[in-house]
UniProtKB/TrEMBL annotation:
It comes from the Eukaryota. The gene is ntcA. Gene3D superfamilies: Jelly Rolls. The keyword Plastid applies. Keywords: Chloroplast, Plastid. This is Global nitrogen transcriptional regulator. InterPro entries: cNMP-bd_dom_sf (IPR018490), RmlC-like_jellyroll (IPR014710).
Length: 205
């Protein structure tokens, strides 16, 4: 709601999009004038190259901002919802014309978003796929979960496909890693999107 009030106060037109889980928005070269603001939910931003290689960029949540950039047709971006999500899309040109890019709301949103990029970079810098997968799982559960003793629960489905994209590995590697590491147990309640992570030891890697 605060973003709608902010945009209305500054007389900036906007569109609101509702994304169900697994829904996607694709931004290509012709969409380089768009600014996306996550107003609720969780999304995965992926950079996709011409040869279909996918590179994880960030996991964005409420109040994060994604600004599309001109890529000369060589790459495009995919915004995929991993939970029920609402996104505001505004025109970058109008945004700049209003000269509000230095407002406290925008500065904080940019700072929080950059932090999300840095988290992914830190994980992707790990050469070991096992470390990348474990760090990604722990990062997601700690960030979005509820802690109860040695268990952390998230209220959305974390699929093997999403983990594979986020860690630049394969689904089989994700499954093998989860099955082989005895320090954690990842369970999904039947017919729900609830996952529980159980930590059995202090040293996971």
């Amino acid at each position: 709601m605060k973003w709608i009030i902010f945009l209305a106060r500054n007389r900036i037109p906007y569109y609101v999009y509702e994304l169900s889980k697994e829904d996607k928005i694709v931004l290509n070269n012709v969409d380089d004038n768009k600014i996306l603001i996550i107003i609720s939910g969780i999304t995965v931003i992926t950079k996709i190259f011409r040869n279909e290689i996918k590179l994880p960029v960030a996991i964005l949540e409420k109040d994060n901002i994604f600004i599309s950039k001109q890529n000369q047709g060589r790459i495009y971006y995919e915004i995929k919802a991993i939970s029920h999500t609402y996104i505001i899309i505004i025109n970058k040109v109008l945004f700049k014309q209003k000269k509000i890019h230095n407002s406290p709301e925008i500065i904080k949103a940019h700072y929080d978003t950059v932090t999300k990029y840095e988290e992914i970079i830190m994980i992707m810098n790990q050469k070991s796929s096992t470390k990348r997968i474990l760090l990604m799982i722990l990062s997601i559960f700690v960030k979005f979960g509820y802690v109860n003793k040695n268990k952390i629960t998230i209220s959305f489905e974390l699929s093997e496909k999403s983990l594979a994209i986020l860690t630049n590995t394969s689904i089989s590697t994700v499954n093998k890693t989860i099955n082989n590491i005895k320090s954690i147990t990842l369970n999904k309640k039947i017919n729900t999107a609830i996952h529980t992570l159980t930590i059995k030891k202090a040293h996971l890697i």
